[in-house]
Protein: Lipoprotein
Organism: Leptospira bouyouniensis
Amino acid sequence: MIVLFFINSILFLSDCNGSERTPFQFCDNFNDANDCTEPKTENDIVYLDQTKFKKENPSFEDFGNFLYFTARETPGFRLVLFRSWNGLSSEEFRSKYNAYLLYGNSKERMEGNSFKPNIVVSFHYLGALLKEEFRHLGINHKPFQLEALGPITLTYLVEAPGMDPIVKKRTIQLKWK
């Protein structure tokens, strides 16, 4: 009996430490099964192809458009639910689910969401969020220099029914390749 208890304890602990049981994972790209194909960390460097940023005398707004339409940078996350829809119907879970991305004084609801019974993924276009913040700061029409951005600290806020709100921070540094 004691041996069985120890075996079950070891299996339980190894299952809790497995990647499938990690409830929140930074991830910027997903496949159709909502598996993470581009995992990220709390501190990342994102390299951008400067040859594709062809605007002459670009403004901060032009850079936001580049991130949105060309580079298509999409900070996101993958959330594992421990029960299907956290015990609710699919429709009820979806109607109460909210995910936001915050930067500076800007807060935007994440544009992309994909739902499976036990996995939710959400993402947002970095360019859209930065453009909003550039407007708040009044620099959207000023000449753009990547070095002026510095580290970008993003806050993820997730309100999933049946769970406490999740707040995570991630810092990214944008650099030219």
